[in-house]
UniProtKB/TrEMBL annotation:
Family statement: Belongs to the binding-protein-dependent transport system permease family.
GO biological process terms, semicolon-separated: transmembrane transport
Annotated Gene Ontology cellular component terms: plasma membrane
The protein, known as: ABC transporter permease
InterPro entries: BPD_transp_1_N, MetI-like, MetI-like_sf
Localization of this protein: Cell membrane
Length: 315
């Protein structure tokens, strides 16, 4: 197990290194520059002085080496746009994305797994077809369109939920206020994630339901709830854990579209702002953070397999 973990960590570090090279050279060699330099009100002398101040007059290979050296020291540099430490910006935005991601994942699992089990139990019936059709339809809905639709219906027409933000402007932080603001972005993300959970749960349950130990449990007179949710679902958790492992990085990386539609101050919104302003250091910081989350999540998912199924061992 220890050898497996060390091997995966080394592979993850190599992957991050390659991602950093690709991202750094792509954004630095692209035409244009940071918004501060491209300010049309600045004179040519001012632009040149600012270019030297930010170190953008150096060769791109040298700039990458300096950036990588700072990263190894735990320094992600300063934002070219706001002149704030990138680490501070990420530290401010990451918890907001984690809150939205955790709420979305919890809601999705509470709804998606029971629906997937129900579709498997009623396989071939009207309920199964309805759930399958609905989940397929959910996969085809554009997230920006769904978010705007929710805002029009629930924020503008019905005025039940706020249209944007994380808390009410000018008020003190309160859990109830946060919960009120999180409903619409959470529902938007959940509807997009639910089809994957439902379809994977149904597929895994269909494979397990036909096994001998399930037929034996039913022959012993055990109730349907105990058979399907305690015995069948427990043995179907590995493929379900796999799809959860794929969903978590997407949520923690921040849904760019959803966070921007609802004005949620998370990682996705920060990434869009940084890309728009050509804020290279922030783009690199977001990329490395999201890449680290993906690698850690994949490692934890692999380790979870051995917990769910004792037969799986990593040597």
């Amino acid at each position: 197990m220890a050898r497996f973990i060390v091997s995966r960590v080394c592979q993850g570090l190599l992957t991050l290194f390659l991602v950093s090279i690709l991202t750094f050279f792509l954004i630095n060699l692209a035409p244009g520059g940071p918004s501060a330099i491209m300010n049309f009100e600045s004179t040519a002398e001012q632009r040149e002085a600012l270019t030297k101040q930010l170190g953008l007059d150096k060769p791109v290979v040298q700039r990458y080496g300096e950036w990588l050296g700072g990263l190894l020291r735990g320094d992600l540099g300063l934002s070219l746009d706001s002149q704030q430490p990138v680490a501070s910006l990420l530290g401010e935005r990451l918890p907001n994305t984690v809150i939205l991601a955790a709420a979305t994942l919890t809601f999705t699992l509470l709804i998606g797994i029971p629906l997937g089990v129900l579709a498997a139990v009623k396989r071939g019936g009207a309920i199964d077809r309805l759930i399958t059709f609905t989940s397929t339809f959910g996969m085809a809905i554009p997230e920006f369109w769904l978010g705007i639709l929710f805002i029009i219906v629930f924020a503008v027409i019905l005025q039940i939920f706020p249209s944007s933000g994380m808390v009410t402007a000018g008020s003190e932080f309160a859990i109830a206020d946060l919960a009120h603001h999180i409903v619409l972005p959470m529902l938007t993300l959940s509807i997009l994630m639910l089809p994957n959970i439902i379809r994977f749960t149904r597929s895994a349950m269909v494979d397990v339901i036909g096994l001998d130990f399930i037929r034996t449990a039913r022959a012993k007179g055990l109730g349907s709830f105990r058979v399907f949710f305690r015995h069948a679902l427990r043995n179907a958790l590995i493929p379900i854990a796999a799809i959860i492992g794929l969903i978590i990085p997407i949520l923690l990386g921040g849904s760019v579209v959803v966070e921007n539609v609802f004005g949620w101050p998370g990682m996705g919104r920060l990434a869009v702002q940084a890309a728009t302003n050509r804020d290279y250091t922030v783009v690199m910081g977001v990329t490395m953070l999201v890449g680290s989350i993906v690698i850690i999540t994949n490692l934890l998912t692999d380790l979870l397999y051995s917990v769910l199924d004792p037969r799986i061992r990593y040597e």
